[in-house]
Target: Cyclase/dehydrase
Amino acid sequence: MTEKRISTNSSGDKELLDGNPRIAISYRANDLFHAEGAIAVNAPAETIWNLLTDYNNLSTIIPKVIDSRLIEDNGSHKIIDQTGKSGILFIEKSVRIVLKVTEKFPNALLFEMVEGDFSTYTGSWSFRPGSSREQTFVSWQTDFKPTFFAPPFLVSFLQHQDLPVVMKAIKALAESRYHKNKESNS
Model:
């Protein structure tokens, strides 16, 4: 796999304005995978932040997350226990991770695995203002190494299948919530 970096600067923003996510996957040395995605959301960063930090309800927000629980809250540092599922046709794999999340409101959520089904799982969500207060460029990136056998072609396929679904779901829900709140406050 070749690495294709996703541009989340002003020149790359135009690509994201069509409402579709941009996804890139690469395979790195020592069996490490890198995945990243970006999407433009027509809602303020605070709306997206509130969705992604509703840790006990992420399974109703993010497809592929089947359970998520906040197990420790130390202000801007949280410990989250999550279970996710992915697969092809009738073959599905569940994975569990406990993440240490560092919240840097309103710009980023940094995460790293404390324990789980990976030997490495670290990354971030970041939020950058768009051309108005009602637009945010959301990006996600992670480096991960499963403890189970996962051929690179299969990981790439699954990430290209799952990440657009996740990014579009976050976009749709954030935009819906923002516009409902905006209407109710008018």
